[in-house]
Amino acid sequence: MPTNQPVGPREPAAALSEIVADTARSNGRHHHHLLDPRGLTSHHRLDKGKGRWATLILAYKTLGVVFGGLVTSPLYVYPSMPLKSPTEEDYLGIYSIMFWTLTLIGVVKYAGIALKADDQGEGGTFALYSLLCRKMDVGILHSKRAESNSGFVRHGRPEGTEKQSRLGKFFEQSIVARRVLLFIAMLGMCMLIGDGILTPAISVLSAMDGVRAPFPSVSKSLVEALSAIVLIVLFLLQKFGTSKVSFLFSPIMGAWTLTTPLVGIYSIIKHYPSILKAVSPHYIVHFFWRNGTEGWLSLGGTVLCITGSEALFADLGHFNRTSIQIAFLCTIYPSLVLTYAGQTAYLIRHPNDHEDGFYKFIPESIYWPMFVVATLAAIVASQSLISATFSVIKQSVVLDYFPRVKVVHTSPNKEGEVYSPEINYILMILCVAVILIFGDGKDIGNAFGVVVSLVMLITTILLTLVMIMIWRTPIALVALYFCVFFVMEGVYVSAVFTKIPEGGWIPFAISIILAFIMFGWFYGRQRKMEYELTHKINLDRLEALLSEPGIHRVPGLCFFYTNIQDGLTPILGHYIKNMRSLHKVTVFTTLRYLLVPKVAPHERIVVNKLGLKGIYGCVIQYGYADSLNHEGDDLVTQVTNVLIAHLRTWSSFSLPGSPEEVYQEVAYIEEAKLAGVVHIRGKTRFYISDSCGWFDRILLGFYEVLHKNCRSALPALGVPLPQRIEVGMLYEA
């Protein structure tokens, strides 16, 4: 049967213009989707890169979203360092460490390498994991394991696996290695969410603390309360979308990015003109030689100079690579180098002022304007990690690693711009709680250091795997990259781990809770899929059920939703046996997320005739950056149009006389559609018997709590409430 046959004129937006169908059977091996990623063009990348002016405007907008955490780090870096009677040589060594950290991690690793490892426009640790899963057979997603013998979709090996490296073969053959890789990706995502909680807290609190210098009578509690109010307002603005927020915030961050290096230059000239000599790495060696353990412990505060660098990568889906690189290399990096140079120059002349924060090196004549700009810039810093958190939550939800939450697309043109009300308010509560409970900036800084260093280390590990298994980078270059960054970030991690009792436990507590939620959800979904594959109904069994006495085919069109494609859901047998009927036209529908950001519109809906009268299969395919923007009636129209076009295309390659049969079948479908449409989905629960072990009792019980409180998949398709039917069934654990 032909594939990819054109059917009529192309339709706009999500409408289908081509049919993709295949009735060929698999040969029994593990197979996966063969959707050419080069054909699945990421539309937001194309739309965002038209012309130099468009790129420059986009680069300007990145200031309001991507770089907030990074460029406001001078507010809290020095106060977070446990320095005891620092000398001129100590400060020169610290500045040299910060300079090379910004240069190597910021410029080389993130701007130069990580941004090129996007998953078709999407960035972040989870996007790196999905890139590895898509190009190599290293994932353990149930959707990738439940496809053999599917008649609905095309099959083949994942792209890039024709000539595999030894490491790629090792991951394919070892389920333990694949689980470890999944755990690393999950940990990276959890840590990034922790970053989204701590960045707003420490940024706003550090900025607002500046009001206490001119007004010593202002209490610390009042500063904490004001910081909490500012954050609440910020989170309430999130529903208006990244574009509107970034357009409002970009002028603020532009002002901050310009003024802080100017103040830094003034401080250099006034206090220590030769500060830039510290770019020589030998000052780092001298620093550790003199200070030993104390110098190593100070790295827990020094690492905060690269705060927000992961957002540079994770926010890639909101913008594009070129715009982020231009903004970082031309504005952010020079600004940070000069700002830290100015701060260090001031501290060399006033060595005991490092605990008093950023405002000490600000000239009195511009103190209040800088306070206002710093406070606003801290709000922008919060925005960068909030946006990144929304992105990674959506990625994990659509890949079925996180309970379903509401995801709103706030831009009609950029699918990467998302907002989740539930996640937004949870973040708001946690941020305010961190400020009110752990109001000491040092405790929050200690927690922050743990997050920053671990996320960087995880990104380094995943990037190394991408280099070896996908890019096929020469082993010498891979070894150079891994040794430099793994050792550098490993030293940072070892230093911040000593801060766990002093506030560093906060991100671990958050990450453990998030990881337990993710693993509990994933485990429950896996067990449910295993049950459905074991008790699936094949076409012969369905034919036998329908031929039983008393079973009727009632008028109407039914969309019967199923999670598996290799057979039919066991809920179908439960439904037929108890209802004693099935609609005359039944379309078994699977909502399927692929490990790609976007699915081409002409491959969005895949249909197949299953061999029984009025019985069809349909797969609605989405990438994790796609929007489920169908309305209920629109979905029905699109699926029936594709089905009818498929039948007509199929008939043109069949035996003579078939057009009359196809005409009757099309009329049969149209008649059923007019009789009424219904959408049926299973509402399943685990029956946890006494024979279950304690592990299953805990995790499956926890999964049931999550499943009971998460959102249904059907409302995302806009199915009208009167057309929904839920069929309950117990799965024995």
Automatic annotation (TrEMBL):
* The keyword Transmembrane is assigned to this record: yes
Q: Which UniProt keywords apply?
A: Ion transport, Membrane, Potassium, Potassium transport, Transmembrane, Transmembrane helix, Transport
Q: Where does the K+ potassium transporter C-terminal domain start and stop, copy by copy?
A: 555-731
Q: What is the recorded membrane topology of this protein?
A: Multi-pass membrane protein
Which molecular function terms from Gene Ontology are attached? potassium ion transmembrane transporter activity
Q: Where in the cell is it found?
A: Cell membrane; Membrane
Q: Any stretches that span the bilayer, and where are they?
A: 53-72, 92-111, 180-202, 222-240, 247-269, 295-314, 326-346, 366-386, 423-441, 447-471, 478-498, 504-523
Q: Which family does it belong to?
A: Belongs to the HAK/KUP transporter (TC 2.A.72.3) family.
Record PANTHER family: OSMOTIC STRESS POTASSIUM TRANSPORTER, POTASSIUM TRANSPORTER 17-RELATED
Function statement: Potassium transporter.
Q: Indicate what this protein is called per its UniProt record.
A: Potassium transporter
Provide the gene name from the record.
LOC115739907
